[in-house]
Design a protein that fits this description.
With about 200 residues, this protein is an all-alpha fold. Helices cover about 70% and strands about 0% of the residues. The protein is built from ten helices and no strands. Helix 1 runs parallel beside helix 3, helix 2 packs across helix 6 and helix 8 packs antiparallel against helix 10. The mean pLDDT is about 95.
């Protein structure tokens, strides 16, 4: 990336940190600054393997920083739309070309579940967003998500119901990049088997 893009990326990082620290409700225990930083790191790792061109790399990293900023509205549903608005406004103020802003918008939109990536940058961001499904932090992240959903919907989720939801989600999920298919998919399959065994033992 050129120096101007690197400077914008540094300012984006600072801007997004400010949003999470001052505007995102603490009840969102999964969609946090920590998660965003993990997604950025995962995007950097995957992109480092593939080496995108300068524009695509810039759009990817900006998207990774902004993808969950829409939680600042307090509404989880279709938070991606607000994330796109925040990212677009920020980039417009920094005189970023419209085609790059469009790339960022489509990257963020692709992360909406079920994920629908088309470009390679979109595929990388989608895999980065759910990178934890194939990592040792999966169970910890899952507990944060359960805590968040219980607080958001103001209802308790029984443990067996939560396990079943996790099994269904993990089975329906797929990684889009060969890098993540090789590195993360085998670990994800271990979590599925573990959850199925635990669910079966109490059935």
């Amino acid at each position: 990336m050129n120096e101007q893009q690197l400077q914008i990326l540094r300012e984006a990082k600072k801007f997004v940190k400010g949003i999470f620290q001052t505007k995102v409700n603490p009840l969102f225990t999964f969609h946090t600054l920590e998660h965003t930083i993990q997604v950025v790191a995962a995007a950097e790792e995957i992109e480092g393997y593939y080496q995108l061109n300068e524009e695509a790399r810039f759009a990817l990293f900006i998207s990774a920083w902004f993808h969950d900023t829409g939680f600042s509205t307090g509404v989880a549903e279709w938070h991606e739309r607000e994330s796109i608005k925040l990212a677009s406004d920020f980039l417009y103020q920094h005189h970023v070309p419209p085609d790059t802003i469009l790339q960022v918008s489509t990257c963020i939109l692709a992360t909406h579940i079920p994920q629908t990536p088309l470009t390679f940058a979109e595929k990388i961001l989608c895999d980065a967003d759910l990178f934890h499904l194939g990592e040792n932090i999966f169970h910890r992240r899952s507990s944060y998500l359960k805590q968040e959903l219980q607080a958001y919907f103001e209802k308790n989720i029984p443990e067996d119901e939560w396990r079943q939801l996790n099994i269904k989600f993990l089975q329906s999920h797929k990684y889009f990049t060969g890098y993540c298919q090789q590195k993360l998919e085998p670990v994800k399959q271990i979590w599925i088997k573990q959850l199925q065994n635990k669910q079966g033992s109490i059935a």
